[in-house]
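Incident review: delayed structure delivery

Summary: a single-chain prediction request sat in the queue longer than the usual turnaround. Root cause was a stuck worker, restarted by the on-call engineer. No data loss occurred. The affected request and its eventual output are reproduced below so the record is complete for anyone auditing the incident later.

Affected input:
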Amino acid sequence: MIVCGIDTSTETVAVGVCEGERVIAERSIGRGEAARPRHGEALLGAVEDCVTAAGGWEVIDRIAVGVGPGTYTGLRIGIVSARAYGAARGCEIAAVSSLQALAVAGRAGSESVAAMIDARRSEVFVAVYGGGGELISPPRTVTDCRLDEVLEAVGPGRPPLRCCGGGAVRFRAELERIEGFVVPPDGDPAHQIRGRTVAALGALSAPVSRRQIVPVYLREPDAKRWIERDLLA
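Output delivered after worker restart:
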């Protein structure tokens, strides 16, 4: 099975095409000018580049898309694009947890992994996975002053806990003050969701209808909160 994996849950656009364990093509595109995410301008080109390298859409069996949690705008762009490709190209489509994809990238040996996506507002989206990939603590939102709750959720006998992702980089100082937390160096591949990982997880997932591909936000979009704030002002 040849799978095209897409993730736009973070500031990075991640696309990859894989056949089993073989990576055919992969693109990772970070922020552009003024440190702005480039989801809208870069995703479609990255997908077409990777699919062309694989031999064209006729060889793509499935599209796998990261459904979050993550940034509202980024997730919408990735999911809408995946739905459109599935409809236009007749491909199967599968949903992948962006935190699970991050945990796979961050795994090292038998250590448990806390996958952390920067949620801004002094918060992280986090889920904890065991060394074998099993889910220990489901996705949730945690504030920077309560990061110790992540370790508590794992339970006794499981530390050290390897913390990966943009959220772990942002709150490195806070995390490293807590016994049992380990954060890889900035720039380590463990902190980045890869298209190849999304594709691999998508190959293992059951395909669903396009309507079942919905974003996982874990909290209300900023715009809705701003509107409610203004109405109450």
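Verification: The chain has two domains: 2-98+193-220, 105-190.
Action items: add queue-age alerting; document worker restart procedure.
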